[in-house]
Amino acid sequence: MINKDDFQPQLFVKLCWDKTAFEVRTPKHLSLNMDEVKRTLEQSKQHKILVYTPHVVILKSGSAETTLSKDGRMLIKKVSNEAEATKVAKQILNTILDATAFRP
Are strands 74-77 and 12-15 parallel, antiparallel or unpaired? Predict the structure, then answer.
C-alpha cells in the first residue's frame, strides 16, 4: 500500500466539451477499492455520498458535485473555475489516500 506521504498526484484538469463540468485525471491509473472509498467518504465530514455503485461514487463536497470513477477519474460540477475544481479533487484524493482506499 502507498500512503499519502508517498503519493502526491499531479492532476490534469480540463473543462469538459459541454462546459458544465471539469474532468480531473491523474497521470497514472489508480485502482480504487470502491467499498473502502464508500466507507471512507461516509466517515468524512467534508463529503456526502449521493449515489454509490461498485464502479462510481457520486458525492457532494460543499456545493461541488463529483462523480468519482474506480480508475480515479473525476467529473466535477457546480464549481466556478479550474482552481476550484482542482481544490475539490485534491480534498477528495487526500481523504481517500488517508484511508489507503486504493492500490497503486
Answer: unpaired
